[in-house]
Design a protein that fits this description.
The protein is an all-alpha fold and about 90 residues long. Helix content is about 55%, strand content about 0%. The protein has a single domain, classed as Orthogonal Bundle (Non-ribosomal Peptide Synthetase Peptidyl Carrier Protein, Chain A). It starts with a helix and ends with a helix. It contains four helices and no strands.
Length: about 90
Amino acid sequence: MPTDAIQRVSREQILAHVQRTLVELFEVSPSEVPPDARLYEDLDIDSIDAVDLVVELKQFTGRRINPEAFKSVRTIDDVVDAVENLMRD
C-alpha cells in the first residue's frame, strides 16, 4: 500500500481488516470477532498465532512493527489502536 494511502485508512477499515484476518488465519466465525473480543480468552489466540497476526499487520501497514507496541494488546480494539498509532508515527 503506498504511503499516502496508508495515511487515509480509517479506524473502520483497520477494524474490518483485522477482523477479516482473524477469520481467515484462525478460522473463527465472523460473529466471534466483535471489537471487544479478547484475543487469548475469547479467540484462543496463542503467542505463535499472535506472531502470525503481527506479520500480517506488517504487510498491511508496510511498516516495521515493534513487538513492544503489542505487549499490552488484549482485545481486537487494542489491535486496532496499536495499528492506528503505528500508522500515525
